[in-house]
Amino acid sequence: MINKRFGIVSAVAAAALAVTGFAVPAHAAARTITVWADDQRGPQLTKLIDGNTSIAPGYVIKVKYFSSLDALQSAWDKSTAAGGPDVLTGPASFASQGGKSGKLQYLRLLATTTAGIPTSGWASMSYQRRIYGVPLDVDTTAFVWNKDLFGTSAPATFGDMVNYYNTNKTAKGLKGGICAFEGTWGSHAVLTALGGGAWATKGANADYSKVVLNSPAFIANAKKYLLDSSGKSTGFFQWDGCADAFKAGKIPFAITGAWNFDGIASAKINYGLGATPGLTASTKGAQWVNYSGAFLTTYSATHGVQGGALKLVQGYFASAEGQLAMSLASKRPPANTAAASKITDPSTLAVGLAAQTGTPQVSPALDDKAGGSNWYDTLGSAYTDIFVKGKDITATLNAAAAILAKNFADAAANL
Amino acid sequence: MHRLAGFTGLPAQIAKIIFMAIADAALVAMFFASLSKHGGLLTIVIAIIFIVTNIVYFSPRTVPLKFLLPGLILLITFVVVPVAYTIQMSAFNYRTGNEISQPEAFKQIMSQGLQPDAANTSFDFLVGRVDGKLVGLITNQADHTSAIATESGVTPLAPADVKIIDGRVVGASGFTALTPDEAANLDSTISNLKFPDGHGAYISPQGDSAILLTQTYLYDKKKGTITDTLSGEVFKDNGVGNFANTKDSHQLLQPGWKAFNTFANYTHLFTDPVVRGPFIGVFVWTTIFAFTTVIMMFSVGLLLAIVLNQKLRFRRFYRSILILPYAIPSFMSILIWGGMFNRQYGAINGLFHTHIDWFNNPWLAKATILIVNLWLGFPYFYLVSSGALQAIPAELEEAASIDGAKTSTILRLIKLPLLLQILSPLLISSFAFNFNNFNIVYLLTGGGPTDVLHGKTAGATDILITYTYKTAFGSAEQNLGLACAISVIIFFIIGSISMWSLKRSKVLEQI
Lengths: 415, 511
Hints:
The structure holds two protein chains of two kinds. By secondary structure, chain A is of the alpha/beta class.
C-alpha cells in the first residue's frame, strides 16, 4: 500500500516538475526595463523600442501598453513594486501625483539634457521644485475648420464663426458652431478667445491669485457670442459628445489634437488647421499646452534596473533623435527643440505653431480640489448650468470662480 | 461515500495523477513567481495550499475535504482575505502621498535632500574596477579633467593616464571597465554608489553620467527630526504618516507613509461635515434605490409571469423575447440606454420631439437609473416568478375558487404569500446586489449630476459603492483608507440586513 502510494506521489511530482519546467518563466527577465504607455503612445513605442538592447546595453526594453489613458492611470494608481513599471509615459499630471506618492524617482538632470527642452517643459514635470520626468512632446490642440462648409480660408475672427453659424444653422442643419472634442479641457481656447480663462498672467508668469473665468470682459463676450437675448444658449458652443457631429459635417469648427486628425480625415472631412480665432483678426484663443513625459519610477531600483532605466529616460526619451523618431510616429510636436527644428509634417507643424499661442497647463492647479472640485468638473458644471439649464451666467461663473480661487491658492503653495 | 459511477480503477488513478500534476505545476510556478517578486505572505499562502492540497488528495482519510477544499480555497482567497485586508487598511492613513512604507518614505525623503551644487557639476561616468574594487572613472564635463572615484575619495588622473576615443574618456591605466552585462548585473550596487569628493559632497552615478550632490537634509535620530540645512526648517514625524514642519503643520515633506491611525477614518466619516454630509445623503439614496428597484423588478416580473401563465396565443414567442434583455451583456445595454437618453442626440428625445435633460436633473437621472435597471432586471424576476407560480399546487387555487374566491383574492391571499416565502432569499440577495450595483450607476450617469457649484461632492445618483470608488480612485487625490472604511460599513450594513431578513423569513431554518 505504501509503495503504491509512494509511486503515485512520485508520478505526480515528476509530472508536475515536467509541467513546471514550461510554466515557470525564464529568470532572464531580471534585466528587463518595463515601459508603460497608453493606447495612443504604446503601439508607436512598441515599434520603436520594444526588444531594443542598444539604448541601454545590458538590458532589454519591454513596452506594455493599456487600452486607454484611463486604464493606464488606473493600473498606475494600483501598481506596486511587484508588477509596476520601471519607466512610465503619460501626461504631465503624473509628475505631481507620482512625486507626492513616492512612486516616481526625483531626477537630477545634466545641464546638457535640460538645455535641449524649454523651461516650460521642465516646469510641467515638476512637483515641489523637483523634476520627476523628461518632457516628450507637446500635448495640445489646434483649431480645425471644415473647408467644404466654411471655405478654404480660416475664419479671421470669432465673430465670423458665429455669423456663419447663425446664417447657415437652419439651411445646413448645423448641430453646433464649434465643438471642443476633448470637453472642458479642449474648450479653453474658446474661453480665452472671449477674454476668459483660468488665471491671470503677470508678464510671462501665471498669477494664481486672480481667477479670470468670471471676468466682466468674458461675461460680456459670452453673452454676445454664445447666448441669445434671453440668456439661453444659441447652440453655437458644443463641448459634450459633439465629435461625431463634426465628422458628419454638421459642425463647421472644432478644437482637437493630432490624435484625432486621422479620424477626421477618415470621415472624409476636408479640414484646415490653425489657431482659434479671437475677437479681432490679430488675437487668438489660447488652448492648454501641456507636455507628455517619461518618468523614472522608484520600482526600477527595486527591480535592479535603475541605471538602465535612467539611460533610457535621459539617453533616448530626452534626446533629439529619440523625440524625432517618436514625433514622426505620433505626429505630436516634440519637446526637444533640436528635434522640433527637423519636423516637416504639415499637421505637426500646424499644431506646434498653434501651441506657441497656448497657455501652459499647470496640472497641480487644475487638478486641485481644495474648493470642492477641480477645474474640469467645476467648468463642466458651469457649462451645464449656463448652456443647458439656461441659468444666469454671471451668478454661475461667480460661484465657479469662488471654488477655483481656493484651488489655485492651495496649489500655488506646492508649485 | 459513493465513487463517481463508472469512473474507478486505473482510469480514475491516471486522471487523478494528471489533475494533481497540473495543479501542483501551477502552484509551484505561482510559488516561484511570487518568491521572485518578494511576495511575502502570498508565497507562504501558496506553499500552504500546495501542502494541504497534496495531503488531502493523497490521503484516504479526508474524503469529505476532497470535495470541500476547492471551494474553501476560493472562499478564503477571494472573500475572506479581501475582507480582512479591507478592514486592516481602514485603520491606516492610506491615501495619495501616504502609500509606501515608512523606511521607503524616509529613504526617498533623504534622497530628495541630495541636491546638485550651484554649478550643476556633471561628469562622464564609466564604472569599472581598480585592484578588484568597484570604482568610477569620471571626467568633468566642464573642464574635462579625469579622476578615479572610489569610496574613499577622488584621485585625479594625469592626461597621459587616460585613454580617449572620439573625445570621450574610455579607459585609464589600472582601470578595467565593466562590460555592459557586468554593469547591468550590478545595477543596484552601481546606482547606490556615492563617491565622496573630500569637501562634504558626493559624486553619484546617473546612468552614463555622474553628478555632484550635497546632502541638504540632516536627520537627528535622537530627536527624530529632519532639518533642511538650506532653509533651517525642522520637520518632525506628526504621527499620521508625514514629517511636518514644526512651525507649520500643513507643510509636509513628501512622500509620506502608510501610518496606523486606528479609527480615524471612521470618526472622520461621521464628524467631518465635508465627508459626513455626502455620506448620509448617498446612504439614503442607496437604500431607496436598492429597495425601489427590487420592488419594481419583482412587480413587473411577477405581473408578466401571471399574464403569461395563462393560455395565450404566441405565448412562447412572448416568453422568448422577454428573456432578451437578460441575454444581452448588461454593460452593453447600459451604454446603449445611455445613448438613448442623450439630451441632444438620443432616440428617446428624438422619438417624442422633446429636449429633456435626463442626466443633468437629479430627479430625472434617478428615474433614468430606475428605468434602465428595471429593463435589465425584470426578466430575472419573470423567470423565477414563473417557476415559483408553477410550483404552487393547483389544488389550492381550485379549492379557493370552489369556495367563491375571486382571482384577485386568490392572488393576494394565497399566491402572493406563498410566492414571497419561496422568493424571499432571491429578493434579499437582489437587494444586496443592487445595494452594490456599481455598473448601472457608473456607466449610466457616473453618479451625476453633481452640483459642484453649490459645494456638493457626491452626485445625485451616487450610491455608496460608486461614492467609495470615487473616494478611492476617482481623482488625482485618492483616499484609500477612507474608502476602505466606507467599504467595511457597507459590508456590515449588507450583512446585517441580509441576516435579519433571512432570519425573519425563516429561510435558513428550512434549508
